[in-house]
């Protein structure tokens, strides 16, 4: 199993190219199940989760062709991938595949809409809380589907003639359930109005792509989305939006180590709340042509309290990284997690680097220390693992992060991007 070795202490200086968003690429890829034409996606990141979903879609009958594996001048790989599902080969998504990645459960929406039925294993994914699927069941039931849980699987069946548009308001905001409703309702008969929809930029990206395929969706990015069903969707060409979580992660890394880095190919407006928190912590962040410039001052980190919330609030996917930054603040800060239970697994690993963190319910109290010291640590989930990298970059001496397969799920060529900016980071393959 690969490990990552970091020798901390160097400031980061240079350019870091930001990849296409994993959390946009996954639902966009799944949308290819809705049409027999080719959906072409540009700026698809090369990540373990994307490769995993390619395998899963292949199982459903999607033909996949990849091109554009050329290295760009700025050092990023931009892949263009063509997805064609002439006919759905299988409406079952088996446990062996779905258990590895929670988002693959979302195939339930397009399979049900296009084929009238789906049998999908209950999901797995990151071990952050129980992550139920009740909202998916309620939403699809509102569209007329019969939903039944049997032996670890959900059997979903559309009424004769297909799903039927309806009004449905989510009792809780869910990104995944919003994606699934957009896809399912696009091919339903009549109009669907979703209340309390997720407003994340990735939802807007999916709606834009579906509209390019012929769907009639309005209001994405607000909490009420209206979808007028159409009888079929066509192919389209769509560019995956930049990864705001990767953007925020590197911005926090620079705030932590000090230095001057331009994050290219990204957009500051995707993460206003996080940028505001990074600024309050003392880093200078500004929009520049084609990206964002971050100037960090290393030791002069100020304590900032944050609370995770659905978009446009502070993203839960940046919570661990921000806590990493706060471990070296000049004072006490609080980080409150409201989206997922059990998303504090990084706390005990950060403590191994010398961080002083105490937990009380869903709030962590972080007493900043003047220095962290390198140590062996273990990645526990995708975002937690990168907070250890941020800690390691600022720690004195060597940090060895094990179980980096978590990182590979969501960060494209992390060690290369950091090394180019002066960090000492290397992958060790055992
Ligand atoms: C997506 C992101 C993930 C991010 C999360 C919240 C992808 C691939 N993943 O995950 O990185 O951390 O949004 O921004 O885009 N819930 C229920 N019942 C349901 C569904 C969800 O109670 O049926 C709960 C979850 O347990 C959680 C909350 O709703 O507490 C939000 O989850 P959700 O927005 O659905 O997260 P994902 O879409 O899985």
Automatic annotation (TrEMBL):
The active site is at 126 (proton donor). Residues 8-418 form the Enolpyruvate transferase domain. It catalyses: phosphoenolpyruvate + UDP-N-acetyl-alpha-D-glucosamine = UDP-N-acetyl-3-O-(1-carboxyvinyl)-alpha-D-glucosamine + phosphate. Phosphoenolpyruvate binds at residues 22-23. It is an enzyme of class 2 (transferase). Gene3D superfamilies: Enolpyruvate transferase domain. SUPFAM superfamilies: EPT/RTPC-like. This is UDP-N-acetylglucosamine 1-carboxyvinyltransferase. It comes from Peteryoungia algae.
């Amino acid at each position: 199993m690969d490990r990552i070795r970091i020798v901390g202490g160097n400031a980061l200086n240079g350019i870091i190219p930001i990849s296409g968003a994993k959390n946009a690429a996954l639902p966009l890829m799944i949308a290819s199940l809705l049409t027999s034409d080719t959906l072409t996606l540009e700026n698809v990141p090369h990540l373990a989760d994307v490769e995993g979903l390619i395998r899963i879609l292949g199982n459903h009958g999607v033909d996949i062709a990849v091109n554009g594996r050329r290295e760009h001048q700025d050092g990023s790989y931009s892949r263009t991938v063509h997805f064609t599902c002439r006919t759905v080969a299988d409406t079952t998504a088996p446990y062996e595949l779905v258990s590895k990645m929670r988002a693959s459960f979302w195939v339930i929406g397009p399979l049900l809409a296009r084929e009238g039925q789906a049998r999908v294993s209950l999901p797995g994914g990151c071990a952050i809380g129980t992550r139920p699927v009740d909202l998916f069941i309620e939403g699809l039931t509102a569209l007329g589907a019969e939903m039944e849980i049997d032996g670890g699987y959900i059997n979903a069946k559309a009424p004769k003639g297909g799903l039927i548009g309806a009004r449905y308001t989510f009792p809780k905001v869910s990104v995944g359930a919003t994606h699934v409703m957009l896809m399912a309702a696009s091919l339903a008969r009549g109009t669907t109005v979703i209340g309390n929809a997720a407003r994340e930029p990735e939802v807007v990206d999916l709606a834009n792509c579906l509209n390019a395929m012929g769907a009639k969706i309005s209001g994405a990015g607000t909490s009420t989305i209206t979808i007028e069903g159409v009888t079929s969707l066509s192919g389209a060409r769509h560019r995956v939006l930049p990864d705001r979580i990767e953007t925020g992660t590197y911005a926090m890394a620079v705030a932590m180590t000090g230095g001057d880095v331009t994050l290219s190919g990204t957009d500051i407006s995707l993460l206003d709340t996080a940028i505001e928190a990074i600024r309050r912590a003392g880093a200078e962040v500004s929009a520049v042509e084609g990206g964002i410039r971050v100037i960090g001052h290393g030791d002069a980190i100020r304590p900032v309290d944050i609370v995770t919330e659905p978009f446009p609030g502070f993203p839960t996917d940046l919570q661990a990284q921000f806590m990493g930054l706060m471990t070296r603040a000049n004072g006490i800060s609080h980080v409150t997690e409201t989206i997922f239970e059990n998303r504090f697994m990084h706390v005990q690993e950060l403590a191994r680097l010398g961080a002083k963190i105490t937990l009380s319910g869903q709030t962590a109290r972080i007493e900043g220390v003047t220095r962290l010291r390198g140590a062996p640590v273990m990645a526990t989930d995708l975002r937690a693992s990168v907070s250890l990298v941020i800690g390691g970059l600022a720690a004195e001496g060597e940090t060895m992060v094990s179980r980096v397969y978590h990182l590979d799920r969501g960060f494209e060529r992390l060690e290369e991007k950091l090394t180019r900016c002066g960090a000492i980071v290397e992958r060790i393959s055992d």
